[in-house]
Amino acid sequence: MSTTDTLSRTPWSGTADGAELDRWKAVARGVADRLAADVLERDRANRNPVAEAQLLRSSGLLDLLVPAEFGGAGGHFETAFETVRILATADGSIAQLLAYHYFNQACIGFYADPADQPHWWRRTVEGGWLWGDSVNPVDPTLVLTPEDGGYRLNGLKRFSTGSGVGDVIIINAAVEGGENHGKVLAFVLEATREGLELLGDWDHLGQRLTASGSVRYTDVPVRPADILGEVTEEPIATLLTPGVQLGFGNFYLGVAEGALAQGRDLLLARQNAWFLSGAETYAQDKVFQRVLGELKARTAAVAALAEKLNRRFDAEVARSSALTAGQRGEYAVAIAELKVVATEVGVEVANRIYEVTGASSTSNAVGLDRYWRNVRTHSLHDPVDYKKIEVGAYFLHGELQPLSLYT
């Protein structure tokens, strides 16, 4: 068996049953309720989400995707996507933190040799690890230099989601020199590793509690035991990126659902009605009902597409080494379709909800703005217009985009 064949194997199989989905949805709703209780205060404080990370840990959500034989919940990706969606209705920052954790941790299954995976799975469970990342592909400043059987890591990486609160950070960097020159390796370092500096410079419009600051690496020792594997172009290994994009779609959907839910509550609580309407209350006004009906219908359509693609992800992962580039590419385009509509609906709902909640809902005490701030901030992760091009090029010509950490 070649090294590439070994790297392409994954530990997941089957799909989630009703009992699994019901169990973890209930857990996620409980976590979301706790997050919702003080979401405005935490958002405004803009501190590292240490307590929130502990809440995720104590709930069991961090190990949902870890195979049961290694101490995890033995759950499926469909279930993980649903938990992200539910958390996003209450707190977009923590939903993003969990979504990134799932795929950072899942790199064990996508990159590591099957013989090494049990070791990594057990370590993440025993350590209660929350996984941050430092892989921003448009900021390729990290360099691995061979030294004494291992490497030295140097450089700066921005937008390192979860790094400020993660127990470990997964990093991608190119090797410069030696027998592995030019290879990109994925490796895992504890956040306290010598020479690793968390700059804590994340201060943005939204997604304030994602601990997404920059990380500076100065002669950081990287040992052979830290390396998960090589980042290859094997179809199953590169399925990781569409999975991340699918996580984004579920996150944006959850934000839209959260904005709708709070908007409905605010509208029902409004007294009187617009003087030209002839209705007794704002909630009975046909104009306001029409707006909410339009936004709710569009959100429901996104939900139907997301649920279909969420379930399919487990089926595609289960193909493992048998997954072809064509199958992977077609599925990535389907996820790009979701990314387009989820982005646009998420931003639209978070913006237009004010049309039914009125001027009083712009009060800082209400905090309705956090939905727009969060979805607007994260939806700029990669330009949605390029997702539209992906869809159009495939529909017209069957063309797939070059592989990257965005496609």
In words, what does this structure look like?
Residues 246-382 form the Acyl-CoA dehydrogenase C-terminal domain. Residues 25-125 form the Acyl-CoA dehydrogenase/oxidase N-terminal domain. Keywords: Monooxygenase, Oxidoreductase. This is Putative monooxygenase. The chain has 3 domains: 3-130, Butyryl-Coa Dehydrogenase, subunit A, domain 1, CATH 1.10.540.10; 134-230, Beta Barrel (Butyryl-CoA Dehydrogenase, subunit A, domain 2); 235-397, Up-down Bundle (Butyryl-CoA Dehydrogenase, subunit A, domain 3), CATH 1.20.140.10. It has 14 helices and 8 strands. The protein has helices at 3-7, 18-37, 39-45, 50-59, 77-88, 92-111, 117-127, 235-238, 240-269, 286-318, 325-352, 354-357, 369-378, 384-397; strands at 131-134, 143-147, 150-157, 168-175, 184-190, 196-198, 215-222, 227-230. Strands 1, 2, 3, 4, 5, 6, 7 and 8 form an 8-stranded mixed beta sheet that branches. Helix 6 (92-111) packs antiparallel against helix 9 (240-269) and helix 11 (325-352) runs antiparallel to helix 13 (369-378). Residues 1-8 have low confidence and may be disordered.
